[in-house]
Amino acid sequence: MELLAPPLAGPPSIKTYSEREVYMKLVIAIIQPYKLEDVKAELYQADVNLITVSEVLGHGRQMGVTEVYRGAKETGNLLRKIRLEIAVNDNYVEPTIKAIIKGAKTGETGDGKIFVLSLEDCIRIRTNEKGSVAIG
Q1: Lowest mean pLDDT among 17-21, 50-54, 117-121
Q2: Fewer beta carbons below 10 Å: N end or C end of the chain?
Q3: In angstroms, rounded to a whole number, what is the distance separating the alpha carbons of residues 74 and 66?
Q4: Does residue 17 have a pLDDT over 50?
Q5: Model confidence over 23-62: pLDDT tens digits?
Q6: What residue numbers bound the domain in which 81 lies?
Q7: Residue 91 and residue 106: Cα distance in Å, rounded?
Q8: What letter does residue 2 receive in the DSSP assignment?
Q9: What is d(CA 80, CA 58) in angstroms, rounded to the nearest whole number?
Q10: Residue 60 class from Cβ within 10 Å (0-12 exposed, 13-18 middle, 19+ buried)?
Q11: What is the number of structural domains in the chain?
Q12: In a domain, 68, yes or no
């Protein structure tokens, strides 16, 4: 009868960022400037209160189409847009998307786009909290 030694235990498994389960998303929306207040109102109604807003330039399919911005017509390759960045936990992704669509949609070309990206981590600087706790 031969006795076998138990296998040696290796180092504990440490998950890298790419192996972790993703619990957070970054929702990025590009919308018309005049729809910002409508979108913010819908987001607040959906209990989504933490947003970053930037003024950006860009164009999509409406390239060369004249738009009205603050009462002035603009024509050109780069049009004024608003970029929203919203970090949310998974359970807030759909309410966030629905709120943006409800507030931004006119049915016209140029209403915008929504992008949803996996968010590997979030750190609240003040407390060093990490992950989904740090988002909200």
Answers
A1: 17-21
A2: N
A3: 5
A4: no
A5: 899 999 999 999 999 999 999 999 999 999 999 998 887 6
A6: 21-135
A7: 27
A8: -
A9: 7
A10: middle
A11: 1
A12: yes
